[in-house]
TrEMBL record, chain A:
Keyword terms: Cell membrane, Membrane, Transmembrane, Transmembrane helix
Protein name per Swiss-Prot or TrEMBL: ABC transporter permease
Membrane association type: Multi-pass membrane protein
Chief localization: membrane
Pfam family, one: BPD_transp_2
Highest taxon of source: Bacteria
A molecular-function term among this protein's GO annotations: transmembrane transporter activity
Native source organism of the sequence: Sphaerochaeta halotolerans
One GO cellular component, as annotated: plasma membrane
Transmembrane segments: 21-43, 55-76, 97-120, 172-192, 225-245, 257-290, 302-322
Keyword presence, Isomerase: no
Localization terms from the record: Cell membrane
Amino acid sequence: MVLFIEKPFKRLMRIRGIGQVLTVTAGLVVLSIIFGIMNPIFFSSRNVANLLRQIAPILLIGIGQSYVLITGNIDLSIGSVVGMSTMISATLMTKGINPWVSVLITIIACLGVGLSNGLLVSFAKLPPFIATLGTMTIARGIAQIANNNYNTDSIGEAAQGLRDFFYYGKTFGLYNTIWIALVLWAIFNFILTRTKTGRHIYAIGSNAEAARLSGVNLVSTTTKAYLVSAFVSCVVGLITTATSGMGTMDAGNSYELYAVAASVIGGVSTLGGQGMLFGTIIGASIWGVLQNGLQFAGAPVAIRNIVIGIIVVISVLLDVIVRSGRGARKKRIESTT
Amino acid sequence: MEDEAYIVEMEHIVKTFPGVRALDDVQFHLKAGQVMALLGENGAGKSTLAKILSGVYTRDSGTMRLFGKTIEGDLSPKQAQEMGVSIIHQELNMCSHLTVCQNIFLGHEKTRGSLLDNRSMRKQAQEVLSSLEIDLDPDIQVGDLAVSKQQMVEIAKALQSNAKVLIMDEPTSALTSVEIEQLFHLIRGLQSKGVGIIYISHRLEELQHIVDVVTIMRDGKYILEKPFKELSMNQIISNMVGREIKEKFPRIPSHRGKKVFSVQDLCAGPLVKHIHFDVYAGEILGVAGLMGAGRTEMTRAIFGADPKEKGRIILDGKEIAISCPEDAIRHGLVLAPEDRKKDGLCVKLSVRENIALPNLDLLCSKAGIVNRKKETEMVEKAIKDLKIKLSSTEANASSLSGGNQQKVVVGKWLARNSKVVIFDEPTRGIDVAAKVEIYQLMNQLKESGIAVMFISSEMPEILGFSDRIMVMCDGRITGELTREEATQEKILELATQFENKFETQVG
């Protein structure tokens, strides 16, 4: 009996960074059980469906941030791109433009931000923190001028199809938002693990110079990661528009940091080269379960923020401790040989 | 000066590193006011000796006396500094954003109460600078100064902390002739103040201007100590070379084929000047030279890793344009770089991913999806061919031993059909068994008609394994030797053929 599970288990344990993912998965299960015991409504089908729909946008931006973090960079413009996306799409729709044409224009505009981020970081060689801090501010500004510094009116009846597609509709009993997140996750996970581009993303995050000397194009690889990040942020912006039926200028505020939190809790290294999108799902879920569960437990927003902040710090700290322990052991071995 | 006491006495110094005896029963003496040249080939043990004297390394055995005081036990860098030993490295260690004065007092700032006493520091800095006849404003930022001036600030810093023994490692390598003259003037000034100077340099032609005594080392051993005047240049060179060739090199006869690859008039920065050479199919071209001769820089420029100023690269009779490593790889020209951790490996990735990385174009479908089956086959073949020892192909590259890491760096290039393979120091820091495997691999490449180029700082390896030897010095090719005519003396002579920068008559 044990023999049957031994082999796949060994293969699983060989995957790099699986340790932290398994730990946080266990954490997620424990947290859910605790919240479930504290308040049985937590596990009601209605709440689970809502919870998953809350997690979806965090998972999406988490995917984007994970891509960029694995290349060894960071994307601070995510939240502003969400805001830009919702403001541009809503403004266009209130002006009577076909919702799907509006979506297309919005995606192109957001990819423009991703392209700028990628080129500023890889071609102009700006520090990613500074480059994306700049585009973050610019994108927020664009969100504000999109409708002359006002939130938009309702996007109206014409956009009902879009609202159903992104938020209210269900397919096979699950909200569409969840499907969108899962499908995009599957696609981007496939790209990251099974394609040349994915391999290059890990390689430049692990050692950019070695990757370059192996023939990897740093500019195009980095830019692709930023484009993915801008694309998923754009989708989250569209979901936001569909949810509220209008555009608000400060939508997506501090989402870039939630995205970092989801990635990092899920085991993505901020130093690059390490992490997997499976971890990002778990990270985003922990974020969502905490928000939702603490709300049920009656904790005010301030307490929720504090708890999530602590969880982020602890998960990174654990990773650092595990790593330095390993490093110290290795050094000892080296010094004795 | 003859009867003055020694300020540094080192006897029977032994230092071993894992697998190497870096210093073997070495002695070294220095008197106050003396300029001592410490000479030897790459790997002779000069730097190790300097590091022991300055406390960076601790000796395994042997006695050390500084200023007549026997050093018991280990000497720490701080102790060494307090006793007056300062070292000026080839790469200067300065905080470029701080001022001259701040750098001079870095780590031992003067304070009044708990506040910095800037006025008195500035005054003292000015005094030290003018006592050395250095015309510098103490308030200027070090980053704005030329390298030569930065070096002078380092010397001033050493003197401020009361240095009586000054070790200078290749101090003139980055200087122009006027600057060298200034430096020599400074050294003579220090000498008259009674400072003992240990001068490590490969530029033998400079020695006549300043050096009193010469200590020569070879292969970690002490060879001789003599006044400079009693030695001729030829005597110095013949004492520096003569490393015993202990290893056997598995050389196979070459069948030199047609000309595959030539580089014409390649220029790229100060260490690659008008490089011109050809490589033939089925031969191994060794590139010899001292550290800093520009060999690595040359290969990086050829490979497209660094920009070139000008030059033509011709492969199979056709000129090819290489502006990045991607271009070079596509044309069948590959480079296994020198520093495996920095340039060769993605250490956080698995061995499988590292070997596959440059070959993804061969392993992917048109849509860019990696074919796992092909990948596994390629990786397993590479591991088998190179006898890489590992627990699993999924093991992190960082978990392998140095030799096995080097095999991965080399192995990832062999899965593709290249025409020219360049190895930069392929055997540095790996054990003998791994070395032999790398040699055999180079032989296989040679037999299959590939043009192989390899850079090595190990004289025996160059002599024992190359079919033809090209020697570089200071960014230029100073000569080419066939296997038959090459000797250690000839190589070293070519490797020290610097352009005479220091022509002015001094002293």
